[in-house]
Amino acid sequence: MGNAIGDAYGLATEFMSARGAEKLYGNGPIAFGTDPGYPVWEDGHRSIEERNDFTDDTDQMLLLLQSLEQTKDGRLHPVNFAKKLSEWRRSGFPELGTPARGIGYTVGRVMRHPEFDTNPHKAAYDIWNSAGRDLAPNGAIMRTAVTGIESFWDEVRVVENTLAAAKVTHTDPRSVIGALVSAVLISRILRGGGCHGEEDRVRVWSSQLKNTDYRQSLLDYFERGTELKGNKSLHPEYEKETKDTEFKPKRIHDLNADRREREALTGEADYRKQFAGRLPSQWNQDRPEVKLREDIGWVGIDNVGEDDAIGSLARSVVADYIFLLRETNLVPSQKPGAPSFQEKWADELESHCFPRNMAQLDLEHIPAIGYAFKCIGVGVYGATRRIDPSPTAPEYQGAKGLFRGTMEQVTLQAGDADTNAAVMGSILGARFGLEQGIPTAWWTKLQHLNWMTETVDLFMDRVLRQYEDHIKSNPQ
Question: Which end of the chain, N or C, is less surrounded by CB atoms within 10 Å?
């Protein structure tokens, strides 16, 4: 749920500059749910009827969840997920009555590749290769929080699923490892990490990482769909589809009928209906004068400091998997004597995830607002902050206050704000939970809440049942 809330909140400034966002919202707050603040600006990209609604970032996460929930075997099947993406591009989300919104440049090009539905990893590589092997957007990171939940107790499986899902549309190692850091961090939080810093620093989270053959297998997986190892990697084997894992098209007509019935019973569509036929001349009327707050209610994201325990956990994830950048052969062409891309990328990952302050990430910088390391960097940075022990406003108290404060400040930096906030929200959601960690006035007013809750609850119930089976089969 944290992913969806961050996605919906961040839309307020997506594709703006920080200066432009300040002109519209000052230094906050931005109205969300039933909480007061500056209303979200209406323009061709964001409309009043879509307030408190998520975008393609969460759509793709939900498609990934639906793929996992269809097969129920704890594994992400890349072809199944690719076909779900293709269906979504054509038909949107009939369960929600929404089209496929805001598909990014890279994801859109990959999905139009003629081999996408049969060899998605090659399709992603072809697009990356045609762009000079220097295309590292954040589209894989925004959706893979759910692979940190599926089989969370089994890090080997978490890694396998995340790599499989990320590479369906993204080949660049920076995009893939960004997704991996997010998913593994979430899984380790669910395994009890992030509470005791000293223990997390020395804990062996995945014994397989000591195995040279396993580490090489991950490096080999990065090369799936490429020509680095000839036909073996260019045309990788995908697990043969079975009755349980083959793609099953959605019953569009039935789902539309179910949605209309649900909306009639719950009134979910009433908010949107009141704005039907709204004209551009009616946009942004009666907006309050923007004034900067002298006191933002807490010390702020850069002054509150890093929480030792969750910070140590995040550092353990980066330390464990940074070898995938340092040792990969999947890099752009290099001139003789030039610094290696591998070391440059590894240094960038660390500096983005553990910056001195948020300004170092330069989130609004064009044309790199969608750079993978900006996204995972601010996600980790924001989610590892301490709770302010003495905020000056009650709404910034505790875990909910931290969620509110970090969301405000990251969103006001603009750039690819919805994706940045979605990734940060997913990690914070794992850290604190829904009811204890996200402002009630926000999540209870999320559009499509009833359907979202039912869908996520079914997924979580199945995951927890499998976890209980795992515990019974592997007593400590």
Answer: C
Q: How far is CA 345 from CA 49, 351, 376, in A?
A: 41, 10, 13
A 10 A CB-CB count for 446 gives: 23
155 vs 210: CA distance, rounded Å: 13
The rounded distance, in Å, linking the Cα atoms of 111 and 124 is: 8
The per-residue pLDDT for 201 is: 84
The answer on whether 134 is annotated among ligand-binding residues is no
Q: Max Cα separation, the chain?
A: 67
Complete domains list, the chain, with CATH: 2-235+244-473 (1.10.4080.10)
Rounded-to-integer distance, Cα 79 and Cα 120, Å: 7
Interval 342-347 mean pLDDT:
96
Beta-bridge mates of residue 98:
93
226 assigned binding-site residue: no
Please give the helix or strand (H or E) that residue 332 lies within, else none: none
Nearest to 139 by CA among 57, 81, 82: 57
What integer pLDDT is reported at residue 199 of this predicted model?
A: 87
Q: Is 302 annotated as a binding residue?
A: no
pLDDT tens, position by position, 280-314: 999 999 999 999 999 999 999 999 999 999 999 99
Band of residue 217 on the pLDDT scale cut at 50, 70, 90? very high
Asked if 370 and 104 touch (Cβ cutoff 8 Å), the reply is yes
Q: How many CA atoms lie within 13 A of 9 on its CB side?
A: 39
pTM summary value:
0.97
Facing residues of 371 across strands?
137
Tell me if 418 is assigned to a ligand binding site. Answer: yes
Distance CA 193, CA 170 (A): 29
With vertex at residue 180, the alpha carbon angle to CA 417 and CA 178, rounded to the nearest 5 degrees, is 40
